[in-house]
Amino acid sequence: MKKIAVLRLSSLGDVAMTVPVIDSLARKYNDLNFVIVTSKRCEGIFYDLPDNVDVHAVHLHGKHSGFKGLRRLSSELRSKGVDTVADLHDVLRTKVLRKLLLLHGCKVKHIDKGRSEKRALVRHTASGFRQLKSNFERYAEVFRKLGLRFEIDFERLDLPAGTYAIRKPEGEKWIGIAPFAAHRGKIYSLRKMKEVIGALVYRYPDCKIMMFGTEKEMHSLRKHYDFDQLTYVCDQFSGVWNELRVIDQLDVMISMDSANMHLASLVQTPVVSIWGATHPYAGFYGYGQDPDNAIQHDLDCRPCSIFGDKKCEYGDYHCIREIAPTTIVKKVAEFIEKAE
């Protein structure tokens, strides 16, 4: 075993969760090489890992689409000398890809997603409602099946000082807000988020609030959020590599159960996370984040989904709609005042 292909094609948050595991592995086994097979959008997450970590970007809607494209991807990985496969995704594409590599003699192991435990969690059985194994441990188990013995001892990404495009002025307070998520059941009311921002700028008039999201997402906010303290990060930077350098300078990040919670965790930025249809018990909480900073409204119907993609049974998303803006502001204030 000399070169391990690590398969996690998407999504950004799940890919970010591989970093603590891969960094811990790469530092312990510096005689091995790790090839991260992921989407072009995600590759910047791995640029600051040890030198024995490389990224092979996939183009699932281009040259790597369909069976023919996966055969091409298999050939590319074999030409790099890959002899082992750790599938951290276990979806149709990675199942096909790992089978192709297995047929060419690669050793292959894949993740156990704990599907039965997660089904029990959303069914609200007495024994099922409990903290499940984290995805970090599930990822680590794949490598242990390959015979690699290690513990996850990651602390944070080491971002070189000369790579920051902007620097926070001394004494200034920066608050990050990532108000969107992939599914409706994980998104806090944008109207109530405006109340949160209003309360924060009233309380800290000299603060800067950094808004994270795509250009399309930010377009929907610009005409409603008219605070002078707002900076839309997408106007100044593109790519996760640049975003990480902004997140690293925040005093605190407000995030949904989404990718930005995990990006902030990679640079030890505290996150006030807002939870609706999903629940931290499912194993997707941010690495090293304090569970007390998860804001959630306890209901008998929560969680109703592992990923937040299930339509609300009652049609009102009461679980996230009823979280008061003052609750969020109070929690954020703890970090701002601690930094003063």
From TrEMBL:
Keywords: Glycosyltransferase, Transferase. One of its GO terms (cellular component) is cytosol. Pfam families: Glyco_transf_9. One of its GO terms (biological process) is lipopolysaccharide core region biosynthetic process. SUPFAM superfamilies: UDP-Glycosyltransferase/glycogen phosphorylase (SSF53756). One of its GO terms (molecular function) is ADP-heptose-lipopolysaccharide heptosyltransferase activity. This is Lipopolysaccharide heptosyltransferase family protein. It comes from Pseudoprevotella muciniphila.
